[in-house]
């Protein structure tokens, strides 16, 4: 997260961040930027304000409104760095006055209400500057968003969610505990008695775990770098290297990944996509050693659903279809990880490219062909 220092800006000689004030100060007006609405894809207006939260720190508040579709969105970001320690606020909400407390909730914060066993996980909402009542209203809006669809598809679930929404609305009278846990340390709950201590509010700092550091995109100082060729890293990464398209020879990229097939073994899947001509290829190679014994698999297809079975064909595999007196030798199609239907399609494409005048495996015969170079007859007849 970038840091904006309090320095002279645009030659004004003042601070970038101004205290929140109700006075009409020209130096504390938001900056307006015309931007694209992601709801109707027409132009709307984004307002950005750099301000200070009393007894907290500097923040960046942005608000977008679209005059065409009336869509709006607000977001808040910390203008400082990620703190050295995480922070957890625990507030005993006792009255309606407590519902008006100002709250800064970063997108990395987890919000909990233990009495209802309710939790808003981190990164499921954008950062916001609101009140406790506003946090509850936002949670209610999120739950009500898909209620119409739930009433049509899962009415029992919709009824339970309606009951829970009523419980959330009843919290506005007070009598519950609000916990905001932010590993970045950039969330805040207002203390209306500051600088005196608030008996209803407890604040604790803690050291982040390695998992929390990873979620925030930072690494602990004592964390050792793993070697780039670690086998565990290769299983979780897709390796990409440059190559040329076998059809048009244009520059393309090949993706390679090590995959563990359940109840089988590890294989290496390679796929090449060409953006110029649209050509696509995929190939599978065994990730282990050659077995001592060969394997023969016989499948009797009894239903159309059998065509959707996953199939792994190695480079040394031959295929036999007795009903068609068809046999495909080793390395004719190459290694494939596909479905049975996909394999048959590849065999069909290969057979149609065979020499004219020969019977393909589907019973086609190229009739009256005139061969010019590699051009084949495009009007086969079925025998």
UniProtKB/TrEMBL annotation:
Name where it's found.
Answer: Cell projection, Axon; Cell projection, Growth cone; Cytoplasm, Perinuclear region; Nucleus, Cajal body
One GO cellular component this record assigns the protein to is: growth cone
Q: Which UniProt keywords apply?
A: Cell projection, Cytoplasm, Differentiation, Metal-binding, mRNA processing, mRNA splicing, Nucleus, Zinc, Zinc-finger
Instruction: Outline the extent of the Zinc finger ZPR1-type domain.
Output: 35-191, 243-374
Q: What is its main location?
A: other
**GO molecular function terms noted in the UniProt entry:** translation initiation factor binding; zinc ion binding
Its BP terms in the Gene Ontology are: axon development; DNA replication; mRNA processing; positive regulation of gene expression; positive regulation of protein import into nucleus; RNA splicing
* Pfam families, sorted: jr-ZPR1 (PF22794), Zn_ribbon_ZPR1 (PF03367)
- Which domain of life does this protein belong to? Eukaryota
| Family according to the record | Belongs to the ZPR1 family.
Q: What is this protein called?
A: Zinc finger protein 259
Tell me what organism the protein belongs to: Salmo salar (Atlantic salmon)
Q: Which gene encodes it?
A: LOC100195904
């Amino acid at each position: 997260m970038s840091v904006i220092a309090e320095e002279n800006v645009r030659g004004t000689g003042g601070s970038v961040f101004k205290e929140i004030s109700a006075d009409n100060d020209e130096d504390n007006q938001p900056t307006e930027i015309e931007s694209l609405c992601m709801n109707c894809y027409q132009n709307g207006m984004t307002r950005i304000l750099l301000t200070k939260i009393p007894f907290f720190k500097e923040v960046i508040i942005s608000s977008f409104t679209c005059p065409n579709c009336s869509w709006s969105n607000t977001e808040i970001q910390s203008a400082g760095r990620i703190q050295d320690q995480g922070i957890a606020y625990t507030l005993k909400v006792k009255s309606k006055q407590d519902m008006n407390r100002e709250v800064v909730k970063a997108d990395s914060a987890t919000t909990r209400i233990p009495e209802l066993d309710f939790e808003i996980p981190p990164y499921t909402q954008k950062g916001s500057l609101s009140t406790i009542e506003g946090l509850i209203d936002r949670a209610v809006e999120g739950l009500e968003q898909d209620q119409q669809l739930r009433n049509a598809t899962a009415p029992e679930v919709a009824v339970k969610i309606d009951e829970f929404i009523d419980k959330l609305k009843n919290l506005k009278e007070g009598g519950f505990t609000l916990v905001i846990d932010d590993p970045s340390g950039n969330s805040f709950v207002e203390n209306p008695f500051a600088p005196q201590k608030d008996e209803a509010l407890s604040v604790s700092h803690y050291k982040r775990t390695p998992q929390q550091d990873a979620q925030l995109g930072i690494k602990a100082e004592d964390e050792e770098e793993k070697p780039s060729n670690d086998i565990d890293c290769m299983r979780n990464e897709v390796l990409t290297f440059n190559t040329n398209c076998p059809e048009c020879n244009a520059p393309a990229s090949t993706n390679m990944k090590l995959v563990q097939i359940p109840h089988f073994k590890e294989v290496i899947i390679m796929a090449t996509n060409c953006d110029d001509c649209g050509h696509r290829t995929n190939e599978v190679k065994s990730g282990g050693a050659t077995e001592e014994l060969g394997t023969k698999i016989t499948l009797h297809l009894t239903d159309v659903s059998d065509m959707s079975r996953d199939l792994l064909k190695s480079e040394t595999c031959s295929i036999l279809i007795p009903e068609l007196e068809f046999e495909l030798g080793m390395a004719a199609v190459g290694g494939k990880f596909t479905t049975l239907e996909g394999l048959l399609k590849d065999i069909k494409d290969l057979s149609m490219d065979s020499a004219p005048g020969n019977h393909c495996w589907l019973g086609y015969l190229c009739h009256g062909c005139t061969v010019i170079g590699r051009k084949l007859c495009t009007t086969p007849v079925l025998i």
